[in-house]
Amino acid sequence: MIRINLLGAPKPKRGKRGVGAVPVSIPSEGPSMMLVGLVVLLIFGGLNYAYYWKIGKDHAKLQEQLKQADAQIATLSQVKTAYLEKQKQHDALKHRFDVIDQLRNNQAGPVTLLSTISNTVSNTEAVWLNTMRDEGNNVTLEGIALNNVSLATLMENLRKTDYFQSVQMKETFQDDSIKDIQSFSFILVCEKKKA
Known about the structure:
Blueprint: H1 33-123, E1 127-135, E2 138-145, H2 148-160, E3 164-175, E4 183-192
Antiparallel strand pairs: 1-2, 2-4, 3-4
């Protein structure tokens, strides 16, 4: 005979302990693994999206700064070009002014030399100049003196002018071409003082 228990699990018998059916149940308490994985995936995706958005925003900001830097470089390049052009003009003008100043100084030099020698020879009696050569640091004077004393006086007066560092006699001889008067031809070398 077969017995069917419609009421549920069979009642254990009193003397014999039998193995009963083990109920299999899915625990319904706590989150399921699929739900936890989905939440972790959503959090990871959200963080990834936020990081990507921040990188995109930083990239856009850096691109804007790069454009501004390029514009500033272009502006500064134009300013530098204009500055270099003005500097060239300034240097050219300065060179011109230096040349003009040098020419003025050189122009005053011969005038001062001629004035000094003219006054010195005029103040010395019995002396005449035939030639004068300006040879850079030296001035060579050739002339005639009626006596040795006049020639010595001329040399002393040239030293006193404070224009010459030294006055030396290169050559002197008695000139026989003039028969009526005794005269001496001379050549003096005068060294200029350094400026």
